[in-house]
Amino acid sequence: MFFPEYRPRRLRRTEALRAMVRETELSVKHLIYPLFVCPGKKVREEVSSMPGVFRLSVDEAVREAKEVYELGLPAVILFGIPEKKDELGSEAYAKKGIVQKAVSAIKKEVPELIVVTDVCLCEYTSHGHCGIIKNGEVDNDLTLEQLARTAVSHARAGADIVAPSDMMDGRVARIREALDEAGFQNVAILSYAVKYCSSFYGPFREAADSAPQFGDRRSYQMDPANAREALREASLDIEEGADIIMVKPAMPYLDIIRALREEFNHPIAAYQVSGEYAMIKAAARLGWLDEERVMLESLLSIRRAGADIIITYFAKEVAKKLKSL
């Protein structure tokens, strides 16, 4: 059909018509809210590069979790900032570690809220890398054991989902094996299957105090130039037992999300990372963008690309906005 017989604007004329034919939906049920948990009591310290995002002590994290649940958001993901760090990142799997305490406290007060835990060593190692250093390099196989211990400790504390973000080869299989051996067959794995070595992580590293003290992470995180490799990485994690696969960052890698959606039937998550959040916040503060509209459009684009789940620092704001409609 051609103009004037076919007029696409007919179905854009009113909000009711637009809503009726809308192809992509954004709902609170698609969102996960990140929380940064730190030592102390009554701590609520704003991250300077991420307005509206805070480092929270366990008691404050519980309060935040309650608000998240009341807003209708289904899940939080926890990142820990330990009191002390060492070469092995041993606080990552300590029985009374910061994440372990936060998981237990949140599940006690808000049992229906899904608690996801980030499984990595970068926040816990004195050198800031995601694994154990041997001869100046991250040793893949030694790191697997530390990651498995960490995942099991999170499961013991009550985590519903563990999310390895380290990008070590074979980590999903080792974590799945360790969880099953420990009796946690029902704890799911959300794998950071496709995690690029991105410059968009800067504000997160301030929030989590996790910047590497030497070198960078290009030897284990993915090259931003590669797309076909993303399919290989995702395929490996699925074969090893991942229940959900994730792409990180999100908006600069919408093509990757789409490629995975077309290739796999697994649930796909995407992480709208700290740099994506900070850019929108900064531009809005300068009056260059309409923050609310850009926030919603950015998340809708991630959903449209094929993501079932989005981890975003905007989750609470979106929930409040959608609740008011």
UniProtKB/TrEMBL annotation:
* Protein residues bound to Mg(2+): 233
GO MF, one example:
zinc ion binding
Which residues are listed for Zn(2+) binding in this entry?
Answer: 120, 122, 130
Q: Which UniProt keywords apply?
A: Heme biosynthesis, Lyase, Magnesium, Metal-binding, Porphyrin biosynthesis, Zinc
Q: Name one GO cellular component term.
A: cytosol
Q: Which residues bind 5-aminolevulinate 1?
A: 205, 217
Cited InterPro entries:
ALAD, ALAD_AS, Aldolase_TIM
**Quick one: which pathway?**
Porphyrin-containing compound metabolism; protoporphyrin-IX biosynthesis; coproporphyrinogen-III from 5-aminolevulinate: step 1/4
Q: How does it assemble?
A: Homooctamer.
Its recorded name reads Delta-aminolevulinic acid dehydratase
The lineage is: Bacteria, Pseudomonadati, Thermodesulfobacteriota, Thermodesulfobacteria, Thermodesulfobacteriales
